[in-house]
Design a protein that fits this description.
Elements: H1 3-13, E1 18-23, H2 28-39, H3 53-57, E2 68-75, E3 88-89, H4 98-117, E4 122-125, H5 133-139, E5 144-145, E6 151-152, E7 160-167, H6 186-190, E8 196-198, E9 201-202, H7 208-214, E10 231-233, H8 237-240, H9 260-264, H10 267-272, H11 275-281, H12 291-307
Parallel strand pairs: 3-10
Antiparallel strand pairs: 1-2, 2-7, 4-7, 5-6, 8-9
Helix pairs in contact: 1-4
């Protein structure tokens, strides 16, 4: 079995849904796009996006002698949905924190590659380092970047976590696929805060996910009042309206089984929750990123938007 075939089979064994491989090289076009995006301030208060620019565009600065970038997709589409009369949470946060779940799989994958091929150097990343995951996913043929800025897989939509494993192992490389968004503008038309400023360009400083997760200030700007629809942690609007997500299927990962609280909490349950119960219920959940204070802030903003 060739190393490439072995790695793709290993990815399936570890629970990943898709695996693509690209040559580790400088991302020239993406570097220009990223620089323009940053210069326009579309990252808002996410200063970390300005850091390590050189590493974001060149994987060889993350792993010495890097030759291949392995990109892996992990389906998170849930088997059940929240009750519709409660504050809404982005589907990616229904279960356990994906960082914890996928990071362990990447460690196992690298360890098995080293056992099989000997002295293999590599590093695994899942949304926690200066890596342009979607760019690599596109280069490795796992989909195209939709007008909503998400990676879209033709057979399975966009509800995927993207993980990256950079290695000095030389492998066979996949090529990019065509863009199948066509003339559709459903995501552009549906974005509640007009954060999709052009096809494939997201003004992060206007995105509901930015305000409800990334923004650490005590208050969400007043001009956003009434624009969040029913969302209070993240937002899935641009994915929910995407025709390609009609192909989404429920994931089979036990760790991503929706928490009962997320499925069943009413507005009153969120209001009555104490900090102690929040820490207990959501100790392994992505919601812990906003901390209890952030969840309370989001809830107040959500309530104000529904009382006007």
């Amino acid at each position: 079995m060739s190393p490439t075939r072995y790695i793709k089979q290993l990815a399936t064994t570890l629970g990943f849904d898709y695996c693509g491989i690209a040559e580790a090289t400088l991302l020239d076009d993406d570097a220009r796009r990223l620089e323009s995006w940053l210069n326009k301030g579309m990252h808002g208060n996410m200063q970390y996006m300005e850091n390590h620019f050189d590493k974001r565009i060149d994987p060889r600065k993350l792993v010495d002698g890097a030759k291949s970038v392995i990109t892996l997709l992990f389906n998170y589409y849930p088997s059940e949905q929240q009750r519709s009369d409660a504050p809404q949470i982005s589907k990616y946060a229904y279960g356990q924190d994906y960082h914890e779940v996928i990071r362990e799989r990447l460690k196992t994958m690298l360890a098995q590659m080293q056992e099989k091929f000997g002295q293999v150097q590599g590093r695994g990343f899942v949304d926690s380092a200066p890596v342009l995951e979607r760019a690599w996913a596109k280069r490795s043929g796992l989909g195209w970047i939709g007008k909503n800025g998400n990676l879209i897989h033709k057979q399975a939509g966009s509800f995927f976590f993207i993980a990256t494993l950079i290695t000095d192992l030389e492998l066979e490389y996949d090529g990019p696929v065509a863009d199948f968004c066509g003339t559709c503008t459903r995501c552009l038309d549906a974005c509640p805060t007009a954060a999709l400023v052009a096809p494939g360009v997201v003004d992060g400083s206007r995105c509901i996910s930015y305000f409800t997760i990334e923004l650490k200030e005590q208050l969400i700007p007043d001009q956003m009042q009434g624009k969040f629809e029913n969302w209070f942690f993240g937002c899935d609007t641009c994915q929910d309206v995407c025709p390609w997500n009609r192909f989404s299927k429920a994931n089979k990962e036990e760790a991503f089984t929706p928490l009962p609280a997320i499925l069943n909490f009413s507005t009153a349950d969120w209001e009555e929750m104490t900090e102690e119960s929040f820490k207990e219920i959501f100790r392994h959940s992505p919601l812990k990123r906003s901390k209890f204070a952030g969840i309370r802030r989001n809830l107040r903003f959500w309530q104000d938007g529904h009382s006007t």
